[in-house]
Amino acid sequence: MFCTSLRNRPEWATVPNTLFSSQTLKWAEQTLSTHDLTIPLPKSRQHDTLESFLLLALSPSDLIQESGAESAMSRIQRLYHHAGGMNVGILFLLNEKVPKGNGTLAFMRLQATIFPTFDMPIIPLASLASLQTSLSAFQRQVVKTCRSPTSTQYTPSPATLLLPYCTSNPPVPEHARNVLGDICRNLSDIARTSTTREGQQLLREYLEDSNPGTAKDVIDFWAQEIVVD
């Protein structure tokens, strides 16, 4: 399900048609008061309690002006408390073309702002072209995590949920995610590693043999928006 207000937001205006053409998820359009997208979470057992994951759709232009940033934070807070902090997150469009915009830096600032208070993932969306792929991959990962035999209760880790989408070709393969988790402490560390010559060489050494092309995809993701004006 998605909110009809997306049609009135220039950066998201094409999303309804994209979602309606999806071959993997079935979408309906409604007026939603607290969020922009609802991802269904199929049940595999009768006692499963997860039914949906609620997402806000944000972009750098939502954070440029002080009033816009305050409005975005108000929406984040309202959604978080509406759902008790469970099964909520943010879909953040990185490559929106705005004056002096830098999607990756805006993403990192938003992450640093909300994580001390709100334990919710921010899914980096490289472009609208990867929307369906990213949402489907996110849905599969959430369902897989909550059905893990070692988990009695689903408590999403923002870093864990974000890592698969820090690539120009989402999702990052599971083995590559484990390797990245071993050599980098957090997402900020991955960003730094991906944007330095030494770090890029390290990624190639660890990832290229087992997952050809993955290192390049991760490097490209972090490089595409970091431009010095």
Which short descriptors sum up this protein?
two-stranded parallel ribbon, alpha/beta, 2 domains, Rossmann fold, 9 helices, 229 residues, 4-stranded mixed sheet
Overview of this structure, please?
This protein has a four-stranded mixed beta sheet with strand order 3-4-5-6, with helices on both faces. The chain is built from nine helices and six strands, in the order E-H-E-E-E-H-E-H-E-H-H-H-H-H-H. The protein is an alpha/beta fold and 229 residues long. The protein has two domains: 2-147, 3-Layer(aba) Sandwich (Rossmann fold), CATH 3.40.50; 158-225. The longest helix has 17 residues, at 66-82. The protein is globular and about 50 Å long. Mean pLDDT is 81; it is low at 150-156.
- Pattern of helices and strands: EHEEEHEHEHHHHHH
Stretches where pLDDT is under 50 for at least 5 consecutive residues are: 150-156
Radius of gyration: 17 Å
The general outline is globular
Question: Strand tally, please?
Answer: 6
Number of domains: 2
CATH class category of the largest domain: Alpha Beta
Short synopsis of the structure:
This protein has 229 residues and is of the alpha/beta class. It has 2 domains: 2-147, Rossmann fold; 158-225.
